[in-house]
Amino acid sequence: MTSNGARPGPLARALKRAAAMQPPSTVLVAFDGSKPATAALKRAAELSRAAGGKVVAVYVVSPYTFPVDLYGVGVADLTQQHREWAERMLAEAVGDLRREGHAAESRLLDGGPAEELARAALADDVWMVAVGASGRGAVSRVLLGSVADRLVHICSKPVLVVR
Question: pLDDT tens digits, residue range 147-161?
């Protein structure tokens, strides 16, 4: 009710709901433990702190494309070891950020790195995605691919590329 006893109109109700909404403040970071990824994580932590948000370090476990039983090691065993390594790496990175006073968490995803990061960025609370770039040349990107390059093209949210 308003001061004159009338019900607020639809515009007033919409403005009230909008004022109560929190702006997106989560920064996703593609993190693989490399120097460029560590630089991206640190920059993202600074930005998320300034925005009053959090940083989420994300590692994507890509499916293996070699024969099922290479050198006596099964793909399932190798994938499990890969996931365990990634969880330890993420836990260490997030622990370091928390000790520095940053709001941080981690997430482990499965699939193609750029595609899964872009999909995770669709969440309403995600403000941007940060990714480290190794600075390889154009020929290397064409031959080997680049998560940063692909992410810039397919992500619906802003992508910060850190060198």
Answer: 898 999 999 999 999
CATH number of the structural domain spanning residue 60: 3.40.50.620
Report the largest interatomic distance among the alpha carbons of the chain, rounded to a whole angstrom. 81
How many structural domains is the chain composed of? 1
In a domain, 12, yes or no: no
Can you read off the two tokens belonging to residue 66?
Answer: 């070699």
Burial of 45 (0-12, 13-18, 19+ CB in 10 A): buried
6 part of a folded domain: no
pLDDT tens digits along 55-69: 999 999 998 766 656
**6: helix, strand or coil:** coil
Span 135-140, average pLDDT? 57
Q: Does residue 17 or residue 95 have the better pLDDT?
A: 95
| pLDDT reported for residue 144 | 40
Distance CA 132, CA 148 (A): 7
Q: Are 94 and 142 in contact (CB under 8 A)?
A: no
In a domain, 110, yes or no: yes
User: If DSSP codes are grouped into helix, strand and coil, which group holds residue 33?
Assistant: coil
